[in-house]
Amino acid sequence: MSFPKRYIGRFAPTPSGPLHLGSLVAALGSWLDARAAGGRWLLRIEDIDPPRCPPGTDDTIRRQLEAFGLTWDGEILYQSERGEAYQAALDRLVTDGMAYPCGCSRREWQQYGHYPGWCRQGPRHPERAQAWRLRTDKGIQSVQWKDRLFGRQCLDPTRQGDVVIKRKDGLWAYQLAVVVDDADQGITDIVRGYDLLDNTPWQRQLQIALGYPEPCYLHLPLILGDDGHKLSKQNLATAIPDDPELARPLLHQALQLLDQQPPSTLREAPVFTQLAHARQHWSLAAMTTAPTRDHR
Question: Residue 296's pLDDT is what?
Fold first, then answer.
């Protein structure tokens, strides 16, 4: 007899600044998908780039999530404490011939559109500091998966180039860290923004190379600002409040941006009342496949 898998989802913000409306929509969609399935929802802080992560920002993010009622299960995982796990994964990739050192600069290869693999047979510049790259010309040549909203996807990782998995300065890169953490935490369902959809081929290739299971993917539409660009910390998007009273109308707006059509009577209702209704009525079928939403 087979049993349904136990859903384990996660939200994994980078603490380079407080959460904004775009990150709230991603967190909310992830939380609702997990809770509607009766699953667990984990919080991971992706702080592998200390120069970009001001001290105390993780505390701000926790307060913001709590203000919106987005509680998590278990201990928070900090990537800054996970170096040994990432190194073990890199060692496996090197042993299997799936990773190699590279000292090339972006300026040298930028005219190619992506890194052309010059160092696959050995470093061209051994005198320089070396990054480590994933070989996309080995293993699977075409990555296919079914996104739960955007349907069947097929991308060739070789057309995106050999991605860096450990930087020249010794810091771990996102692609390797996220794959190792998802596997170690038993993540079954990844719900995140549409801007990360084209990262999936690299991550699937890493999962296959490391013998990790394939999670289900759901990429949510991006929220655009007044200038037509994605809301982000880089363009100084307004931080969401960490006060539950101020969170009420913004939570209602975030539900609308997820096409959930919450009743207008709940706009000023306590966040837990809004979340209870949204959890009961969470519907992926209600969402359109447009990759962006205008927040106005």
Answer: 64
- Residue the block writes with tokens 């399935």: 37
In this prediction, residues 82-96 reach a mean pLDDT of 98
pLDDT(4) > 70 = no
Q: What are phi and psi of 224, to 5 degrees?
A: -95, 145
Tokens 């079954």 label which residue? 188
Quote the CA–CA distance of 68 and 71 in Å, as a whole number. Answer: 8
Q: Inter-axis angle of helices 174-184 and 200-209, to 10 degrees?
A: 60
Question: Rounded distance, CA 155 to CA 94, Å?
Answer: 24
Please, what is the average pLDDT of the chain? 93
The full set of domain ranges for the chain reads 8-81+185-201+211-294, 83-176
pLDDT, one tens digit per residue, over 136-152 is 998 766 788 999 999 99
Is 83-176 in the same CATH topology as 8-81+185-201+211-294?
yes
The CATH class that applies to domain 8-81+185-201+211-294 reads alpha beta
- Beta strand 143-147 pairing with 40-45: unpaired
Q: Which of 185, 180, 207 is nearest to 86 (CA)?
A: 180
Domain spanning 83-176: CATH superfamily: HUPs (3.40.50.620)
From residue 247, give the alpha-carbon distance in Å to each of 56, 70, 292.
Answer: 21, 11, 23
Determine the length of the chain.
296
